[in-house]
Amino acid sequence: MTTPGVEPALAQMMDSVFAEHGADTDLWQRLDALGLVRLTGAEDDGGSGAGWPEASELLSAAVRHSVRIPVAEHDLLACWLLDAAGVGSDAAVRTVCVLDGDGRAAGVPWASQCDRIALVWPRGGGYAVADVSTDEVSIIQGLNMIDEPRDGVTADPTAHAGTDLDPMLVRQLRLKSALVRAIQICAALDRALELTIEHAASREQFGRPLAKFQAVQHQIADIAAEAALARSATESALAAATTDWSSPHLEFLVASARSCAGHAATVVVRNAHQVHGAIGTTREHRLHEYTRAALAWRSEFGSVRHWDARLTQMAMDAGPGGAWPLICP
Prior knowledge:
alpha+beta; Butyryl-CoA Dehydrogenase, subunit A, domain 2; Butyryl-CoA Dehydrogenase, subunit A, domain 3; 3 domains; four-stranded mixed β-sheet; three-stranded antiparallel β-sheet; 13% strand; AcylCoA_DH/ox_N_sf; Acyl-CoA dehydrogenase
């Protein structure tokens, strides 16, 4: 499914490069040559000047072909933040890390595989940011359930002068990070649905395809409904973010997207594996590449419980009669 607002030719090009070169060791260089590594960067700074709809399509294409690279962390998070703070960035591969008051951060995406880190830490009553080499911090390597680096980072903020960071940019960073994972989850759920439909249509039991059994039809219908709900909520947040990242209403939309995607993952993963049966649990079958990914990503940049709680709190804060305007502003 192509992201709304994206030229079909561009979407096809993105899909083709991952399909043909997803396993190549020089994939990052290929993406860079095509202007996809800094897709949303300003053209004056070497970027392609595209927006989040195009970035969403790029992320979705990578997920469809099970390509694991830090393109979102590099372009949409780290480089964006450094540019917005006036620090600037170069061609080095980056991720972003927000330290706590003790100078630590857990589960930092791709820290051990990147060249530099956009390091954010609390300072005074606000925040500071610095572009540091990974050699300047302590990294304890870790992995999520799909073997993507999720590392522990420890740094001494006093060793870096840092640049004062507008708290609004930190808020936007949190929302952008959460929306990135919602986009990726939706792509994984859509692909799980496709695989399940293909399996049910081709696999026979008792002399007829699985797709002819009403119970299987119900399971697939539930998968399709949950995946569609998650995508609808995510596309609503994406459309609003494309217009105004500083909108006070955006957090509600992102929280809705993450909540819907997180709960959808439960139904999609369960039903998809039930329809596939034993073959769906094997490493040779591709289903696990998408079901495990959806489960891994839904716990990052805020758990399902976290986003459910935020939705609940925002609805309560809106007061009597205020919930509907949150949904339809």
